């Protein structure tokens, strides 16, 4: 079965990998900030929507991490 990235050229894959890494780093920083905010919000106000907000974004980050791994795998296969 062909990979999702098999239709991309090597240059397109490198560009996509660079973008994905940058977005992943930004998303992780935002999630960490949300966790810190959620902890302080929970301490001050008790349980609220802010307490559980980071839980909605963590699965997206996990998917993005596996996407980065798949792009790297495709690039290694082409060498």
What does this structure look like?
Helix 1 runs antiparallel to helix 2. The protein has helices at residues 10-45, 49-78. The chain is built from two helices and no strands. The model has no long low-confidence stretch (mean pLDDT 91). By secondary structure, it is mainly α. The two termini are 19 Å apart.
Residues in helices, as a percent range: over 70%
Give the helices and strands as they follow along the chain. HH
Oligomer: single chain
Number of helices: 2
The pLDDT mean sits at 91
Share of residues in strands: under 5%
Rounded radius of gyration (Å): 17 Å
The secondary-structure class comes to mainly alpha
Q: Tell me the number of strands.
A: 0
Uncertain ranges: none
Largest sheet: none
Shape: elongated
Distance between the amino and carboxyl termini: 19 Å
Topology summary:
Layout: H1 10-45, H2 49-78
Helix pairs in contact: 1-2
Describe the structure concisely:
84% of the residues lie in helices and 0% in strands.
Which short descriptors sum up this protein?
mainly alpha, 79 residues
